[in-house]
């Protein structure tokens, strides 16, 4: 082919052109621009991080201080104090439990079943203001503590009002079975010796729900006519420390206790007590 012979060209075909990239960004920069920007921490998060760092610093300081001899000594004292406090608290709990187990029955359940003894027991307790003129084994007398009571008509009187005659003092309640069992013998003894001995039969009004009405109803239903008195203000219970019934005390004409019996009396025990009162009205029994 001669130099003048040229390949025909397609005038209608566009010429291919290669455009140079105009974006000067690198691939890495392009990728970075495609991802969202990291959010900055909020003020609350910044405060939390600061507090955490502060606590961590304090913990490190405490550990460092504890590692010193002074810190170990203080730590031992702290542990000893905690142990002592725990022991003291335990002792207080135990003491409270013991106190409750001892005091609660006496306060809530004043009826204590007692069987008494085989005979009236002579008193051998020396009172602080003893006169020293008794004839008992300890050559001393025990003045009976005074108290107030009311009679069936509501009049107030005291135990001292009976001084001048021997007194058989008995504490009872209508709900008390042992008290009920000795009542017939007390009624008989009062009929026989009521002119020589004062029978002061005191109802423990208020003890375990006892009322004056229930006591009077019991006496009326059973036909008992001996004089009955009422400890409505707990004066007698306090003076004699009555926490169990029945109880009986023998008091001579001078107002001194010469004998006592805890529990329900039968006819023979009651007769012995009457003999002590009528044969020894001036002092304690031999």
Summarize this structure as a short list of keywords or feature phrases.
alpha+beta; disordered C terminus; disordered N terminus; two-stranded antiparallel ribbon; 286 residues; seven-stranded mixed beta sheet
Q: Can you put this structure into words, describing what you see?
A:
The chain has 286 residues and is of the alpha+beta class. It has helices spanning 27-34, 43-66, 69-108, 177-193, 212-222, 235-240, 267-279, and strands at 121-122, 142-143, 148-150, 156-158, 167-172, 198-203, 228-230, 247-251, 256-262. Strands 1, 2, 5, 6, 7, 8 and 9 form a 7-stranded mixed beta sheet that branches. The protein has a two-stranded antiparallel ribbon with strand order 3-4. The termini are far apart. The relative contact order is 0.13.
Fold blueprint:
Blueprint: H1 27-34, H2 43-66, H3 69-108, E1 121-122, E2 142-143, E3 148-150, E4 156-158, E5 167-172, H4 177-193, E6 198-203, H5 212-222, E7 228-230, H6 235-240, E8 247-251, E9 256-262, H7 267-279
Parallel strand pairs: 5-6, 6-7
Antiparallel strand pairs: 1-9, 2-9, 3-4, 5-8, 8-9
Helix pairs in contact: 4-7
**SS summary, helix count:** 7
Q: Please indicate the percent range of residues in DSSP E strands (runs of 2 or more).
A: 5-15%
Cα-to-Cα separation, first versus last residue: 175 Å
In total, the number of strands is: 9
- Succession of helices and strands: HHHEEEEEHEHEHEEH
Uncertain stretches of 5 or more adjacent residues: 1-37, 87-140, 280-286
Computed Rg: 51 Å
User: In which range does the helix fraction lie?
Assistant: 40-55%
Shape: elongated
Quick one: biggest sheet?
7 strands, mixed
């Amino acid at each position: 082919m001669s130099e003048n012979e040229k390949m025909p060209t397609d005038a209608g075909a566009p010429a291919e052109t290669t455009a140079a990239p105009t974006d000067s960004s690198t691939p890495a920069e392009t990728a970075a621009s495609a991802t969202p920007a990291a959010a900055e921490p909020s003020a609350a998060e910044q405060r939390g991080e600061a507090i955490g760092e502060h606590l961590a610093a304090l913990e490190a300081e405490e550990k460092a201080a504890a590692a010193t001899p002074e810190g170990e000594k203080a730590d031992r004292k702290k542990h000893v104090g905690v142990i002592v406090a725990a022991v003291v608290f335990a002792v207080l709990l135990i003491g409270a439990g013991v106190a409750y187990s001892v005091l609660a029955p006496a306060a809530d359940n004043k009826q204590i079943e007692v069987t008494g003894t085989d005979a009236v027991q002579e008193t051998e307790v020396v009172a602080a203001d003893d006169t020293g003129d008794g004839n008992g084994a300890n050559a001393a007398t025990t003045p009976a503590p005074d108290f107030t009571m009311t009679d069936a008509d509501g009049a107030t009187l005291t135990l001292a009002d009976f001084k001048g005659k021997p007194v058989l003092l008995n504490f009872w309640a209508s709900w008390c079975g042992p008290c009920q069992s000795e009542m017939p013998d007390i009624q008989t003894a009062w009929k026989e010796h009521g002119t020589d001995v004062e029978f002061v039969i005191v109802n423990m009004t208020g003890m375990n729900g006892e009322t004056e009405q229930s006591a009077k109803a019991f006496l009326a239903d059973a036909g008992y006519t001996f004089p009955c008195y009422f400890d409505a203000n707990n004066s007698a219970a306090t003076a004699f420390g009555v926490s169990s019934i029945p109880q009986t005390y023998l008091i001579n004409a001078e107002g001194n206790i010469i004998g006592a019996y805890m529990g329900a009396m039968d006819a023979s025990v009651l007769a012995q007590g009457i003999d002590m009162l009528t044969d020894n009205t001036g002092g304690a029994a031999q």
